[in-house]
Amino acid sequence: MTKSLPDEFRTASVVVVDDKEANVALLAKILKSAGYENVIGFTDPREVAPHYENNRVDIVLLDIRMPHMDGFEVLAALKEIAVDDYLPVLVLTAQTDIETRHRALAEGAKDFLNKPFERSEALNRIYNILDVRLMHSKIRDQNLQLERRVQERTRAVEETRLDVIRRLGRAAEYKDNETGYHVIRMGKYCERLALAAGVSPDEASMLLTASPMHDVGKIGIPDAVLLKPGKLEGEEWEIMKSHATIGGEILSGGDSELMEMARVVALTHHENFDGSGYPLGLAGEEIPLMGRITAICDVFDALLSERPYKKAWPLDKTINMIREEAGSKFDPDLVDTFLGIIDEIQEIRALWTEK
Known about the structure:
Blueprint lengths: L6 H4 L2 E5 L3 H13 L4 E5 L5 H7 L4 E5 L7 H11 L7 E5 L4 H10 L3 E4 L4 H55 L7 H16 L4 H10 L12 H4 L7 H17 L6 H12 L20 H16 L10 H10 L7 H9 L1 H10 L4
Parallel strand pairs: 1-2, 1-3, 3-4, 4-5
C-alpha cells in the first residue's frame, strides 16, 4: 500500500491483539510505517473489551488462539459492547479451516487475514475495514447532530406552545385581576398538592401548566356580570356559572394530554364533593382528581385575593373555610393533604404576591 493516508485514517485508533509480543510489535511497525499514528497493542486478551468500552476504537486486529480468552470469546465480549454499531474486527489466524471462518463471521468479524500474511494485502484489508468503519461513524455522528437539532427545535416549539397556553390562562384572569398573579400561584399550589397526594411528577408538572387555564371560560362572560361589585343575582349567576362549560368547550378537541387535562380542569373545578356543584353535578370520585385538586387551590387563593366584588380574606379565616367545607365542597382527603403542606403553600404565596 503506497498511497498516502487521509488524515482520518492516519489518526484512526488501531488495536492489535495477539498473545505473542513479537507479532504485536511486527504489526505495529508495519502500520506505523504505512502512516498509522495511533496503534495500541495487547498481549492479554482480557484487556481488550474494557479498552474498547472506554475508548474510541476504529479497528481491532484480533488473533484467535490465545490463553485466558480466545479470539471467539473476545469477539463475543465486543459484540455485547458494540450494540447497534459496526464491529470493526479483522481476524488474524493461522487456522484456515472453514469452521473457524464461519464461527468468526457469526461472532461479528468483518474479514480474515491468514498468518503468515503479506504486507500489502494486510494493509489493504485493514484500509477497507477502516473505510467502512469511518463512514459508519461519520453517518452516526451526522444522525446524532440531526437528532439534536430536531430535539432543540421540538423543545423550542414546545416552549412556545406552553407560553401560549400560559398566556391563554392569564388572558381571562386579567379581566378581574390585572396582574394575573392568581393563576401563577394557583398553578404552583396545584403542582405541590398533586405531588403531596401521590400524583406522578410528570402529571403534577402537567397540572402546573394546565390548571392556570381553569377560568379561561371567563372570556365569554360579559364584563357587566364578571366585574359586578356585589353579589350576583338569578340570571347573572347562571351566566357566571357558564364559564366552566365555555372553558371546557374552548379547550376541547385538542390532541395532547396537556390540553385534555386543561379541558377537564376548566370543566370540573366548580364541581362539589357532595354533588351540589356545577356544571355537571358530579360527586365524590366522579369528579376527576385534577379538578378536585384545582378546586381547593383556586378557592384558597381567590379568598385571599381582593376582587372588584370582595375584600381579601385573612389567612386564618380562609384556612377555616377550607377545613369546614371538607366533605361538602372539597375532597376531605385532599383537604387534609393541603393543610398538611400549608407552610409550603404560604411560601409559594409569599414568593408570588403582587408587589
